[in-house]
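During the practical work, I worked with a single protein chain and the tokens that describe its fold, as given directly below.
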Amino acid sequence: MGTPPPDIRPRTDADMARITEIYGHHVLHGASSWELTPPDAAEMTHRAHAIEDAGYPYLVAERDGAVCGYAYASAYRPRPAYRDTVEISIYIDDTLRRAGIGRELLQKLIDTCTDLKFRQMIAIVGDSQNRQSIDFHEKMGFVHVGKVRDIGFKFGRWMDQIILQRPLGPGAATPPDRP
């Protein structure tokens, strides 16, 4: 019998110390975030509130009572015509990668955003060399729609961004039904 799936639930302020720790590791050691200095828990909490106050979901994965990952959707762009499109972020405790936590989190985020009647989901993968993240998103129904070359400099080298897109619900087949 395998490891049970994580519990997925909405984020609370009590989760922010652990979320900050997970994100800080990715800032310092990974190309998923292009920040150079990890933000503190107060800043991370401020960001989370802004996302939720704008009507977007912010989820955590818990295993054995401990937060082991998180994911959220936010505005893809600020202009009103983009209101039916979300951009996602997902971060997993580095010691638990490839344990199915990301898949469970992202599927719940897809389902939640579909229920909220968003129509398109965008994933921006930092670093075109990050095949693991690109492959993960493709397995979750995203398709590669673009590459922006050499726009970020981190770890002593220029990095690309890969843009992946996934329709939600009826996608672009009909006009949006959100206000």
